[in-house]
Amino acid sequence: xxxxxxxxxxxxxxxxxxxxxxxxxxxxxxxxxxxxxxxxxxxxxxxxxxxxxxxxxxxxxxxxxxxxxxxxxxxxxxxxxxxxxxxxxxxxxxxxxxxxxxxxxxxxxxxxxxxxxxxxxxxxxxxxxxxxxxxxxxxxxxxxxxxxxxxxxxxxxxxxxxxxxxxxxxxxxxxxxxxxxxxxxxxxxxxxxxxxxxxxxxxxxxxxxxxxxxxxxxxxxxxxxxxxxxxxxxxxxxxxxxxxxxxxxxxxxxxxxxxxxxxxxxxxxxxxxxxxxxxxxxxxxxxxxxxxxxxxxxxxxxxxxxxxxxxxxxxxxxxxxxxxxxxxxxxxxxxxxxxxxxxxxxxxxxxxxxxxxxxxxxxxxxxxxxxxxxxxxxxxxxxxxxxxx
Length: 389
Prior knowledge:
Number of strands: 0
Radius of gyration: 31 Å
Number of helices: 12
Shape: globular
Mean pLDDT: 82
């Protein structure tokens, strides 16, 4: 029977210095691989944190720019239209103000289109393609042009009547009523193009209609100087009606051609600029320009109004492209809330308790509708992917 000690002695006798060296190499290889994995894991975590921080930073910047631009834009609108800024007189020339906004918008979108064309030329040069060089206007044809002219004209009327309304009803009422933009868009889409909408859109329309009725029914009797609620409401509803025409036409243009959002903005501003210029000359003449020349301090208001409108428009498109309609709706809803509160505080609007409730209900309905739309879209997409697999 073999002895256990002899086996142990035999094993020990086979261990040589080279064996120790091999074992150390194996151990060091294991440790180095583990350290490498740990370092890679840590670096990937750091990269994820950096990417997340970058995304949050971009979202915060977009949120801040959009809110700031439109809050300032709305504040200057009400300041010029309702408060005496030239001695005892107001600078209430809404058509001229819309004209300046279109002028700056056209300049901004032209710069964007130029930037897109430069990028397309550079990409074509890098690819060394033998195909004919493309331009940013390749998708335009006579049908898109005609629809663009119609959409631009209705957009001019919507913006002008909305600005006129502020003179007579103030920003809070205008914002609440304009929050019902989806109502005429649904009606216009159905009447003009027989377009059908999901059930939650109709529920939201009914809810917002009720909130708007309550907001105006429980309005206090006190009025600012020159306030005319019936005319102001008529202008607001005219603006809504024009939105109901513009929205479906834009949808039709996008259905015909896969237009870039910047190109769509350019088309609206390109066709809208001559329309609003003629309207400004016919309705208000050169009086606003003479007043600005005599009162150079007003130029700052006009330039800031136009610049914030243009910058806000571009950044809204960026939000839609990067984060979708849910995040964009959240931004615009918060902006409307802040604009309303600022207007109530700065311009001493009287608000009843029921008006506060109605305003809150309107904003809550807007966001709830967008959230439900997002959930339904995600669910439908998941079902399509599952059926595809």
